[in-house]
Design goal:
Blueprint: H1 3-12, H2 17-27, H3 33-38, H4 42-54, H5 63-73, E1 78-81, H6 87-94, E2 99-103, E3 121-122, H7 125-132, E4 138-142, H8 149-160, E5 165-170, H9 180-185, E6 186-188, H10 192-198, E7 210-216
Parallel strand pairs: 1-2, 1-4, 2-3, 4-5
Antiparallel strand pairs: 5-7, 6-7
Helix pairs in contact: 1-6, 5-10, 7-8
Length: about 220
């Protein structure tokens, strides 16, 4: 079984049969998340969104943006922190990306997401940066919790490896990911190719998450 098929099987075996077709349509770009909600099956789309959340997938993983993101990353070494079950790392690994996936599993005692879907090392975000930060080129952080962990993580990375880039997937000012200090100190970077990738990202209606490229900045963003 090839890596791509394995990735899909890992997802589909965790989704009830009645939602499989809907999700594969989204994965392969036959329908967008927004169109799914605007279709006659919008109730099914709501249930699918809830089902994916229950399986630990917050950033919707589709080939539409994962493949071009993997191509943009190329052979650069990556570290994902706060990976959860590892959905994004699994998808990127299936496309050949060299990525270390880490999480502290603090959710495991209260949320029944199940086991990791790929290798995820048990490290909190700061420990992961201290261990691997000097050897990576890109830090990836998707849907971090609304506390100061993401801010402390990028602050630590700046000290250890100020040249490392940061890919952040989440909402911005006033959103439901990270905290105000993170948003104020995250400086976006202009990169036309990356922005083309980011524009392919799909989100559920009513959410405002996006894919950002940036670095830590000592000066607060106004």
């Amino acid at each position: 079984m090839n890596e791509k098929q394995n990735y899909l099987d890992e997802i589909l075996e965790n989704i009830p049969r009645e939602f499989v077709y809907s999700y594969t349509d989204i994965v392969f770009g036959r329908i967008s998340c927004e169109d799914a909600f605007n279709s006659d099956n919008r109730i099914k789309a709501y249930y699918l969104q809830d089902e994916l959340r229950q399986k630990g997938m917050y950033a919707v993983i589709t080939w539409q943006w994962v493949k071009p993101l993997a191509k943009w990353i190329g052979d650069r070494r990556c570290l994902e922190v706060m990976s959860g079950r590892g959905w994004l790392s699994l998808a990127l690994r299936s496309q050949g990306v060299n990525i270390i996936s880490t999480d502290d599993y603090s959710w495991a005692d209260t949320i029944q997401w199940g086991e990791s879907v790929t290798e995820v090392e048990r490290l909190d975000a700061i420990e992961a940066v201290n261990k691997y930060g000097k050897d990576i080129e890109i830090l990836i952080c998707a849907w971090p919790y609304m506390d100061d962990t993401a801010f402390r993580t990028i602050s630590a990375l700046h000290v250890i490896n100020p040249d490392a880039l940061i890919i952040y997937i989440g909402e911005f000012d006033g959103g439901c990911t990270a905290d105000d200090n993170f948003h104020k100190h995250f400086q976006t970077i202009k990169d036309e190719e990356f922005h083309r990738v980011a524009d392919m990202y799909q989100r559920w209606p009513s959410l405002h998450d996006f894919v950002y490229l940036g670095k830590y900045s000592k000066n607060k963003r106004r």
